Amino acid sequence: MKINPKIIMAGALVLALTINVFAQTPPYLAISQDSPTTVQINWTNQVGTTYRVLSTSDLTTPLSLWTPLEDAFSDGTNISVGASTTDTPIGFFCVQIPTNGTLPAVQIFSPTNSQTVSGEIGVGVGAQITNQLEGANLYLDDALVGFIDSGGINFNLDTTHFANGSHTLYAGAVDTANNETLSSSITLDFENPVRWLDASSMFNSFVPIDVTSDIYPADWLVSVTDTNGTIVRTITGSTPDGNISTTWDGTDDNGQPLPVENLYQITVDVTASGGSSMMTASSLAGAVGATSVSSTLNPHGVPEFTVQKPAPNPLTAYLNILAIYQQLTSQEKIIYPPLPDRPANNPYATTTIKMSARDMFLAFHHTSGATVGLAAGTATPNASSNLASGSTKDLVWWENQWSSQQTIVARVPISGGFNNTIGQNCNSIAQFIGEADGTVGNNRGVYGGGGVTLITTSSDVYNLTNMFADPNATAFYFYGHGSATGNSIGTLGAVIGAINVGIMLDNFYLPSYNGKPAMVTHKPFNFVFLDGCNTALGMFPEAFGIPKAVSGATIVDAGQLHRRAFMGWTGTVTFQFDSSHIDWSLQFWTAWMDNGNGDVTLARAIQLAYQADPSVFNNVPIKYYGNGSLKYSD
Amino acid sequence: MKNTIFILVTLLFFPVLVLGGEKEEMYLQQIMIPQARELLLRIAQTNDLPFTTNQVQSYQVDYYDDGLLAKMQLTNGWVFRFLTDQRETNVSALHLPGGKEAAYFKETMIPLTREFLQRIGQTNDLPSATNQVKNYKVDYFNDRPGCTSNLRLTNGCAFGFHTEREKTEIDWFQRPIKTYYSLAGAPKAKIDAVKALNLQNKLNINTALTLAKKYFKLLGHKEENFHPPELLQSYWSGEESGRLPYYEVSWYRKDVNMADRDKGIPTLPEVSMTVSGIDSSLIYYSRLYLPIGSDF
After folding, report:
1. Across the interface, do A536 and B248 touch by the CB < 8 Å criterion?
2. How far is A550 from chain B (nearest CA, A)?
3. B176, B202, B228: which is the final residue of a domain?
4. How far apart are CA A306 and CA A295, in angstroms?
5. Cβ contacts of residue A273 below 8 Å, gap of 6+?
6. How many CB pairs (< 8 A) connect A and B?
7. Domain count, chain A
8. A584-627, pLDDT tens digit by residue?
9. In A, which residues are within 8 Å of B156 by CB distance?
10. Is A612's CB within 8 Å of B189's CB?
11. Could you report the predicted ipTM of this complex, rounded to two decimals?
């Protein structure tokens, strides 16, 4: 690719990590020390254009020979990318707009093909495509392992989270139309003595820590560090065979819970213990019943063994099978596979197998019962290797199991029979929610202090609709008299109208938006259950920002879509004992709250209430709009 | 205006000692015991039928302006609730005796849980003893023999059971894996952590569907009985949104008019499951409104 020299902007010098800045005429380029081993390169840019960062350690190097580090998104006027100074304490940087080349050109600048890597590595990517760049993906062995959509396209890849050995790496550049252009792939050899496969990034009860170490016997130390850099928890142990399996439950060294909704770094350090972990090949033959054992060292100094062992005489095995076969009936012989050809007699048969150091150690330990302190011998560790210690780490977010939101529970007084039962049911629903709040916290209780809001006057309705606008209130259960159209609910003199709710929450329906029907939502509720006549028939779902399914409709959302659902009745709900509607809502809430777990989907909770009394739906079925996968804990 | 009369019945030296008025005792004998007997007959628990006050451990009647609410516990553990207004009385069973629950738990729930986990290949989680169970709950139907129940293992796996006409099946299974995150207003570090989840995804929509179909068959369903499956990759929401390494797949039964789904009708026969792209396992299964043990 050719570079247009007119748009080379500036260069900056890092000399023994002393920062100097060249060229202060716009567009600016600046450099600053970010850490002892990194610098930040900042510049103003032309929005929508992809820039490339290059470096050299010698300013006399012709520009065409400068090393490209990475391309950068230009989604703002000020761009900042980081660069490592570990290998180049003296460095010059420039940024360019690569042009005049053949597009698309997606490539991995570093590391290079066939390189052996360990620990955390940076993967610098060039992403020049025909259309505007929207994002860049990184794939390892065809699995997506990184995504970047701002700043420099330099992926941080922790190779200790993958198995040792050969891996294929390639990048993809995605444009605004979601077309992806892939780079050529490179092959890397990962070599880490300590590995943490399937490391978690989130947890809400405990983090599994399952680490494999080539170093053994060894002592291990798990350190948990908070965002202030303070070590808040340590766990220690030892491993005879390199398998480390433990957990962290979110508590500190005193067993006290640490703050949730926080980031923690877990580091596992492994150090060899009990003498050399290596085994003398010559001493192993007898212990594992081998005729000979030879070994070689892998790049970390870990021995890999070739073992030759006596094998059973193939004729003996054949004769054993023949003895069984001769006792079979003709019908049974049909089921059995035919006899193999008779092998030659070979009382000195041998077999050759490859064994890892771990397998050899386990075999040795199993056979001899020896403890782990073994003498060094032919397969001693490479003195220059890092075999004596190693580490792996992981960043985890401890999240509260439940999201934060509150439920408004309200009802109207019912004249005549059942008022007390209705009141008790509503109190029970509020109590379930309150219990959940007591268990999980995170502001998940009943809105307004925990009680049921009684709606009897227009003033009560006014206060209730003001509650709707509070960002903390995102769920609503209401028991009242619904109108024939389903567009209002309440009681005499205290009526909640769907239109008023829609205006209050700024949620509305557009018959045509870009030629299609659409919903515009600004304060959508996550869950609404209007427990009254005909409530599923009107516009309440849309008023609460939970649209009914309309073919081809779109949702224009001020926020991205939270799972939502609206539930209501499709006819006149008569509170006769033979209909059991009186208890249906309580059964639904009992099922949905799931003994405080809040882990049952809406669809299943409806089914459980239905199973308890199928007759409820025979005359007036319930309906729900939205996502049946919604859980109370969402 | 609430007027409460509390009546305590104890069994000490006399079969039944009633502390209360004649009115309540009459209600006990003429309404509560016969209604409870009728309910137990309805749900085929004929060994537990109450006939006399000797079989009553305790009862309580609360009066209201427009009716009354009462509870009665039998000596064998059954607890009933009664609602009475001017017109009629409604009875429901609140608790069944602990012995019955325990027998159902050990003889039905535990074996079915083991079989289910074996069927889906999660044999590391097989419960063999009750100490691997965190909690369980059985809810008997009031209008017919049968019950729904659920069980949660100490490792967080949860199971739902449906028993009817002497058949039982697991109709709900869930591993304790969160497949949805609401990240409105969440800090960047949390959003990054959730984004990182999808980087462990080893499936795509094609392989996820293949995997889900495998579990669909393992759990005894036949594709020819259902509409083609619909697949949705789980997502997180907030100021922005993104994908999670989980795939939700649903099959509606062949006789379902798919237009009814958009109408909000909840009682459509359906099988749904979620598979994990992290370890290619089944993490959620539910069968809704299907007969026990079969698709039709």
Report:
1. no
2. 7
3. B176
4. 6
5. A217, A218, A219, A238
6. 156
7. 3
8. 888 899 899 887 788 899 999 999 998 888 877 777 788 998 88
9. 205
10. no
11. 0.78
